[in-house]
Amino acid sequence: xxxxxxxxxxxxxxxxxxxxxxxxxxxxxxxxxxxxxxxxxxxxxxxxxxxxxxxxxxxxxxxxxxxxxxxxxxxxxxxxxxxxxxxxxxxxxxxxxxxxxxxxxxxxxxxxxxxxxxxxxxxxxxxxxxxxxxxxxxxxxxxxxxxxxxxxxxxxxxxxxxxxxxxxxxxxxxxxxxxxxxxxxxxxxxxxxxxxxxxxxxxxxxxxxxxx
Amino acid sequence: xxxxxxxxxxxxxxxxxxxxxxxxxxxxxxxxxxxxxxxxxxxxxxxxxxxxxxxxxxxxxxxxxxxxxxxxxxxxxxxxxxxxxxxxxxxxxxxxxxxxxxxx
Lengths: 212, 104
Prior knowledge:
The complex is a heterodimer.
Chain A: H1 3-18, E1 26-28, H2 30-35, H3 37-40, E2 53-57, H4 70-75, E3 80-84, E4 89-94, E5 97-104, E6 114-116, E7 121-126, H5 129-133, E8 136-141, E9 144-149, H6 151-161, H7 171-177, H8 179-187, H9 189-198, H10 201-205
Parallel strand pairs in A: 2-5, 5-7
Antiparallel strand pairs in A: 1-2, 3-4, 4-5, 6-7, 8-9
Chain B: H1 3-27, E1 32-38, E2 41-50, E3 53-60, H2 64-99
Antiparallel strand pairs in B: 1-2, 2-3
Helix pairs in contact in B: 1-2
């Protein structure tokens, strides 16, 4: 990974933390695999390739105490505001990083962006996101505390949404191998069963066995 | 998604980025604010190029806020130009990769 990209990501997270909004967000997507390093502490942990997208999920209802000009904060780092697609989902563009915001889609769902007025942004509703946000862990990264989905949830979500993809960017295999996460994973058997109620059959069938 | 699909998406993102940076650059105030000392007093001039010539427009004594605005715009312009140049390199690279006829 480019050093610039890593440093820029760290700067973005630091800005969000300074503004007091980072505790109200959960990092998802390929970037959180990198940050699991601080949780597993497994020698030889190799995070897989990351995309340029830094996905930040906002649990509902959003709880941000004060108004923050996120566009201004990220603008100082060289990000420009862009509105994606016909529905106009906001995203912040930089040659090294694209910051996007997501919220869980519930009920019948809607294609309309979900407004977060305290941050002056909107977020894209995404199905099955509750699975990631239902159980989060805190991982230290430099001087900030990041909220990430529990690796078990991440692995299940990945297998559900991308049944043909390699197992959770390697996280599920690592989670199963790591002594630290074995116990939580066993505890997530109920979660796996819960997913099987609504997940595509092919996604669940391929999920690796949980060690006892 | 195939690797080619991912690269195509990245190219679309970079092209969009290029467009956005160019739009942001166009929005910034043109030229630089320069200070000239005349008979012990500071006066400000907006200096910019137009039709291949350097033009200097008198701005008066200019307040601190206005001066700060021009300085901030100057820094922002330099930042955007640097990033725009990076985006253009990315576009060139991605177009080159996608031009290959072999399936990836």
